[in-house]
Amino acid sequence: MSGGPMTEAMYYVLLALHRPAHGYQLMQQIARASRGRVQMGPGTLYGVLTRMEKEGLIVLSENDGRRKTYLLTNAGMEALRAEYSRLRAMVRDGAWIGEGGTNEKTQL
């Protein structure tokens, strides 16, 4: 992976692959993990899966001709953890907004 921020779709696919899954299962797990906020269609999903497979974040673990089952690689888990840490840091940086205060760093 390039090391930059990942797309929301990539993040949720990696999150959903905490256990091997095929496309339809992934769409359901993504909707569940995002509490219904993210509804990923097949076109988006398979585009993301192809990209992540090329980047070594996932592998095809089974292909019975009808369904392709994907599995998270060690590199995929590392990328997911790094993105999770990056997102947590962003939320921490903006926590003052939820507290109703001001950010001293932006005050001149």
From TrEMBL:
> Do you know which Pfam families this protein is assigned to?
PadR
Q: InterPro entries, from UniProt? A: Metal_resp_DNA-bind_regulator, Tscrpt_reg_PadR_N, WH-like_DNA-bd_sf, WH_DNA-bd_sf
SUPFAM superfamilies, A to Z = Winged helix' DNA-binding domain (SSF46785)
From what superkingdom does this record's organism come?
A: Bacteria
Q: Transcription regulator PadR N-terminal domain: from which residue to which, for each copy?
A: 18-81
Q: What is this protein called?
A: PadR family transcriptional regulator
Q: What is the lineage of its organism?
A: Bacteria, Bacillati, Bacillota, Clostridia, Eubacteriales
